């Protein structure tokens, strides 16, 4: 036979309670924790109040320190680019100061609740979602009682130190907005390609002559102006993401150039952006007999013999084509920048 807690009075606490008929578990009732030290000793209450206020005040100090650390340990880098050591020091300083500020606010709030706030217990039975007017009035009265018991209005030192810390807490976030830098403007619409810029082989950065390419050959190229950018920093990284171009040679009669693009190729050599117009993956899976270019990410397929138009996959825009020519020394150069933004769509893009 299974025994219930009522069969073991020694385990039921100071008061033995009998379970109602059909209920195997007796009502435990409400436990009276007794008065806390801060409720009977005013010096203990004052000491706890000073502890809480001290933590809130110290949190304010750490918040201000985080702003100071942000300014002192800058990561601008200058012409030489951003140094990883500077980034690590800045992250460490910001993490310590902001982490300590949030920790002290949290610990202070817990200490306030544990040492100075009362903790009355309420038992409330389940009822319909819509409470009666009497219950609503009782709930409001309980809320007012709880608000009064916290001593928020009475303990001015705690209240003011907490409000001060919370008022300062958003300041580091406002200061960190500086890291967003200037607005990009129309920077996404352009690359460092320009009229007369030579096409250089990627990695080795050697100029290319038209005679160097064979039918069906693909070469990844970068603009010569890319080498003029700083060795480190966002400008070089951004152009590495936008400027790569694929150079492909096919028979001139296989090219179905759109109106206005008749002189964009050099004896069957065409240049297209290497960045997929779907989500920006780099592409270079070329099928030389069909002149189709496949993106490995989501299988968008482009016809390079027909102005880079999409023939399959989720991409909705053709690959941007770079108009090219030959300079006086016989090297391949760009006629201009791309005539449309490269890469995937974005909100400000018109087409």
TrEMBL record:
Q: What cofactor does its activity depend on?
A: [2Fe-2S] cluster
Q: This protein's superkingdom? A: Bacteria
**Biased composition range(s): Basic and acidic residues:** 1-20
What is the predominant subcellular site recorded for this chain? membrane
A single GO molecular-function term is: oxidoreductase activity, acting on paired donors, with incorporation or reduction of molecular oxygen
Subcellular location, in the record's words?
A: Cell membrane
Q: What does this protein do?
A: Iron-sulfur subunit of the cytochrome bc1 complex, an essential component of the respiratory electron transport chain required for ATP synthesis. The bc1 complex catalyzes the oxidation of menaquinol and the reduction of cytochrome c in the respiratory chain. The bc1 complex operates through a Q-cycle mechanism that couples electron transfer to generation of the proton gradient that drives ATP synthesis.
Entry GO terms, CC = plasma membrane
Is Lyase found in the keyword set? no
List every stretch annotated Disordered: 1-36
InterPro entries per the UniProt record, alphabetical? QcrA_N (IPR045603), Rieske_2Fe-2S (IPR017941), Rieske_2Fe-2S_sf (IPR036922), Rieske_Fe-S_prot (IPR014349), Rieske_Fe-S_prot_C (IPR005805)
All copies of the Rieske domain together span: 264-333
**Where are its TM segments located?**
52-73, 93-117, 162-181
Q: Which organism is it from?
A: Phytoactinopolyspora halotolerans
Membership in a protein family: Belongs to the Rieske iron-sulfur protein family.
Q: How does it sit in the membrane?
A: Multi-pass membrane protein
Q: Which UniProt keywords apply?
A: 2Fe-2S, Cell membrane, Disulfide bond, Electron transport, Iron, Iron-sulfur, Membrane, Metal-binding, Oxidoreductase, Respiratory chain, Transmembrane, Transmembrane helix, Transport
- The name of this protein is Cytochrome bc1 complex Rieske iron-sulfur subunit
């Amino acid at each position: 036979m299974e025994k219930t807690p009522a069969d073991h009075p020694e385990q039921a606490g100071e008061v033995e309670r009998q379970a109602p008929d059909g209920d195997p578990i007796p009502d435990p009732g409400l436990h009276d924790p007794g008065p806390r030290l801060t409720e009977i000793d005013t010096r203990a209450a004052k000491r706890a109040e000073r502890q809480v206020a001290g933590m809130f005040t110290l949190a304010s100090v750490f918040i201000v320190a985080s702003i100071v650390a942000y300014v002192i340990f800058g990561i601008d880098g200058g012409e030489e680019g951003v140094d990883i050591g500077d980034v690590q020091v800045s992250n460490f300083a910001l993490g310590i100061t902001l982490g300590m500020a949030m920790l002290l606010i949290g610990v202070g709030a817990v200490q306030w609740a544990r040492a100075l706030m009362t903790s009355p217990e309420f038992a409330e039975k389940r009822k319909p979602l819509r409470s009666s007017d009497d219950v609503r009035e009782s709930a409001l009265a309980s809320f007012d009682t709880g608000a009064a018991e916290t001593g928020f209005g009475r303990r001015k030192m705690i209240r003011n130190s907490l409000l001060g810390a919370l008022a300062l807490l958003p300041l580091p976030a406002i200061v960190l907005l500086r890291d967003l830098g200037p607005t990009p403007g129309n920077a996404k619409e352009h690359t460092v390609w320009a009229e007369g810029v030579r096409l250089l082989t990627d990695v080795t950065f050697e100029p290319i002559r038209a005679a160097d390419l064979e039918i069906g050959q693909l070469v990844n190229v970068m603009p010569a102006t890319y080498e003029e950018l700083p060795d480190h920093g966002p400008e070089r990284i951004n152009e590495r993401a936008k400027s790569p171009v694929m150079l492909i040679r096919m028979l001139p009669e296989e090219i179905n150039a759109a109106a206005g693009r008749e002189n964009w190729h050099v004896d069957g050599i065409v240049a297209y952006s290497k960045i997929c117009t779907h989500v920006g993956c780099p592409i270079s899976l070329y099928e030389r007999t069909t002149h189709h270019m496949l993106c490995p990410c989501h299988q968008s397929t482009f016809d390079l013999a027909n102005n880079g138009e999409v023939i399959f996959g989720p991409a909705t825009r053709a690959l941007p084509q770079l108009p090219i020519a030959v300079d006086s020394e016989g090297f391949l150069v760009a006629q201009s920048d791309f005539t449309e933004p490269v890469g995937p769509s974005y909100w400000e893009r018109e087409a």
